[in-house]
Prior knowledge:
Elements: H1 10-13, H2 31-39, H3 45-48, H4 61-73, H5 79-88, H6 90-95, H7 103-112, H8 114-130, E1 138-147, E2 155-157, H9 158-190, H10 197-225, E3 236-238, E4 245-249, E5 252-264, E6 270-276, H11 285-296, E7 302-305, H12 312-320, E8 324-327, E9 335-336, E10 342-343, E11 351-352, E12 357-359, E13 365-371, E14 375-379, E15 395-396, E16 399-404, H13 406-418, H14 421-428, H15 435-443, H16 454-480, H17 485-493
Parallel strand pairs: 1-7, 7-8
Antiparallel strand pairs: 1-5, 2-3, 4-5, 5-6, 9-10, 11-12, 12-13, 13-14, 14-16, 15-16
Helix pairs in contact: 2-4, 4-16, 5-7, 8-16, 8-17, 9-10, 12-13
Amino acid sequence: MPVPFKKDPEEYNGRKLLAENVFDLIPEDDDCFIYEDIFSQIDTSDLEKKYSMAGQHAYHPRLITSILIYAYSQGIYSSRKIEARCKKDLSFMYISHLNCPNFRVLSDFRKNNWQFFKSCFVQSVAIAKSLGMISLGHVSLDGSKFYANTSKYKAASYKRLNENYKKLEHEIEDLIKKADYTDSTEDKIYHNGTGYSIPDDIKIKKDRLAKIKSVKRALEEREKAKDKKDIKDCSQISYADTQAKLMKTRGSFEYCYNGQISVDEKDQIIVSEHLSVNENDKNELKPALCQIRDNTDSIPSVMTLDKGYATPDNINTLDSAGIDGYFATGKGEKEKTADGSSKILSCFFPYDKSKDIFICPAGHVLEFKSKNKKRIYKSKGNVCAGCIHLKCIARKKRAATMYLDDKAIVLHAMAAKMKSDSSKRIYAKRKIIVEPVFGQIKTAGFRRFSLRGHEKAGGEFSLVCAVSNFKKIVKKLKNSKIPSLNEEIASAMA
């Protein structure tokens, strides 16, 4: 009875006799061909200057960059796994030009050229802009925590560092005395005493002491930068990455960095990125805005930001730049008094910026009266007498009075602006502009940095953001059905 299975094609059995190109087996619409067209246009001239003609020839930096970007786009971040894919995956073999760099080559390149990845990101923005994928009509800024390449179990408190430092100093001192005694004793007996075993112990302990000393110094410098004279014993620092900070994420505290991205509304292109060591977002708007200017030679018309950025300085920064800003200002929760009832906070008093007045919940107007250290707003006459809002925080005797500084006025003005229907519609777009991009990055598998240290981790974050842009660019080019991708990309890079 004949076997009911397909036979191997003759081309397989006679493959050694055929002059077939192995890349013909890749589907014609595979993304790797578009990626290769893009990679051929990446400028690596700054990196090429670092290489010397002496010694063995190195892989071209453009080739290594291409492999890393393509690997990250496929959700592969381990240098060992990237090397393995270059050996057996046709698309990786096409991108690597049938080269297979060792995983240490890939890892060292990523570690030593973190600054170049920032250039890669800028080039990705330039390509997207030239392809008409950036409008700067509406840009949203947001931050998200990414795990550092360390663990909270590889950390020590300042108290523990001091204790271990003193303990090791005493142990080393005792070992040196013991080594000297052993050497002198053996010299008397054998006349060739060595004492090698104990000095080895000394070397190990000295290495540990040096590590503790460097980590302790890093912690002291970090606290000094915060203008803290006395360092608390409970202050902690990581041995593996001394620049990472303990941040709250997913209900627990982990060593993280705060990744910041500004995303354009049109095609979700990241137009600025930077990595922060600050847990909150209060100081992240200005560097983001400066980078948008540098990368696009322009500024957005509209920016939306969440409550973490809602500070008077940030609101004034956008106003002075001529950008229409929208900040979430919170829901204005009521404050509890000693008897358990609720006070009506000043955030419940709508502010009219054009008239410079407040309106209390009962509908009475509080006009600006005078300014000394703070601005004073007061209602007319005794309108508060008999008011149903007995716990009003602005109530004073018979007239409601509010004492506010200039910064509080700015926040009130923004809160009043955000209550309009048009503002709510504009701010609602934020959840479909910036938040999905972080979701795409983390869903692809990038949640923890491979590199240690703020600068190197920042370079890797630039690489991740560049990859996000390149994925959007590839999708755009694939759907646009452009006859010659090389010409289009070359004109974009020009």
